[in-house]
Structures are given as C-alpha cells and as structure tokens.
Amino acid sequence: MLELLLKFTVCFIAGIGAGLGTGFAGMSAAAVISPMLITFLHMEPYMAVGIALASDVLASAVSAYTYHKNKNLDVKNGLVMMATVLVFTLVGSWIASLVPQSTMGSFSVFMTMLLGIKFIVKPVMTTKEAMEAVAPKKRVIQSVLCGMVIGFICGFIGAGGGMMMLLILTTVLGYELKTAVGTSVFIMAFTAFTGAVSHFAIGGMPDLWSLIFCVGSTLLWARVAARFANKAEPRILNRATGAVLVILGVVIIGVNYLT
C-alpha cells in the first residue's frame, strides 16, 4: 500500500510539471517525468522514458485539440515539419551511434531555462496577421529545413525536441506564441506515440500503476494549461510560459543533482 502511495505521489507531482510544460510550451513530458521516476522510484531509465513518452501522447493530443479549437494550430505546415523531424531524428540517431558518447544530456534542461528567461525578458508579440503574411511556399520550405535541424539535433543528443520546435517556430518561422505551441504539441503527439510504441516493443510493458498515474496526471494538467493559455493575453502568456519553463528547469536540475 505504501509503495502504491509513493508511486501515486511521485507520478502525480511529475505529471503536474510535465502537463504544465506541455500545455503552456509544447515541452516534452520526458524532460520532467523521466528524472522523477528514475530518482524517486529507482526505475530503469529505458522504462521511465517509455512511460514519459506515453504520457506525452495524450497530453500533447488534448493540448493540440484545445489549440486547434481556438484556431491556434497550423496543421498543414505542422505535418510537413513532423515528417521531416521523424526522418532526420533517425538520421541523427544513426550518426550518434557512430561517434563517441558526449556529455550533452543537460542540453535540454539549460535550453528550457534560457527559453523561459527569453519569454519573460523579450516576449513573442508577433501577430497572426504578420505570421500569415508569409508566402505559403516559403513557409513549407522553411518547415522542411527547420524540421531537418530539429530532427537531427533530437536524434543526435536524444533531447530537446519540444523546446527546439518552440524556439524555431517563434524565432525563425515568425509564429505567434499560441500558434507555435499549438503546432509544437500537434507534432509532439505523433513523435511521442512513435517513441512510446518502440520503447514498449523493445523493452516490454512498463509498470502499469506508474503508467496510469503519470498519463492521468499529465493529461489533467496539460488540459488545464492549454485552456488557460488559449484565453490569456499574449504578454501574460509569455510571462506565464517563461515562468513555467524556468521553474521546471530549476526543478529538473535539482532532481538530476539528487542522482
């Protein structure tokens, strides 16, 4: 009974961070859930990542639905970028297997914090009108090129997908923040599903209670965050997103320090 209570507590707290990160910023749940499960439940890393990816699927899907319902999702270019990201993630993974292992595991954590600070100090105030003024053909080409970069980096270092997408969508492609997050979670739902299926196919089924608790908590908080984000004013949303990212970055560093 005590073991089940511990699982519920750890998974629920991890789900709060993962859900808020997903709903506000399109952040991968793996960045929060994996270190929590490994540190406090002493779970095998491969299984922890599989549970985190499975949690990501529904959380990203419900967030994407919420953003789409509020017309803050670019489906066409999102599909183009998603296909390119998936292909170049495989390329990056293959190349990474050929070179000596590097210590780049903390990349996504520091990127999370820096991106959070960026949203607070220099908010994204691009309007939908300015975003939609870009020629469709140019946008597709940009999506392909950016998808190649994001996919390769994710495959090579194994982290940072959601943050890389949000950064590139807002700074390179000129998306306004809500559409950037909506498009990011839309892509993440498919990439997380692919990752979760492959993890469970290779490593077997995970601990069922941990899976249920993590998926449920992440889904709940992602829904809460996505609903708030779609109703918030741009400046408030930037600050809220920035605060969530900075806090999550600090917490993840603290959890990693415990290991």
What would you note in describing this structure?
It is built from 11 helices and no strands. The longest helix is centred in the last third of the chain and has 27 residues, at 177-203. The protein is mainly alpha-helical. The model is unreliable at 101-105 (pLDDT under 50). It has one domain (9-258). It starts with a helix and ends with a helix.
Low-confidence stretches: 101-105
Number of helices: 11
Tally the beta strands.
0
Spatial shape: globular
Please compute the radius of gyration using only Cα atoms: 17 Å
Structural class: mainly alpha
How is the main sheet built? none
User: How helix-rich are the residues, as a percent range?
Assistant: over 70%
Q: Give the overall average pLDDT.
A: 85
Order of helices and strands: HHHHHHHHHHH
Q: Beta-strand level of the residues, as a percent range?
A: under 5%
Tally of domains: 1
How does the SSE layout of this entry go?
Elements: H1 2-25, H2 30-40, H3 45-69, H4 75-96, H5 107-121, H6 128-132, H7 136-157, H8 161-171, H9 177-203, H10 208-231, H11 234-258
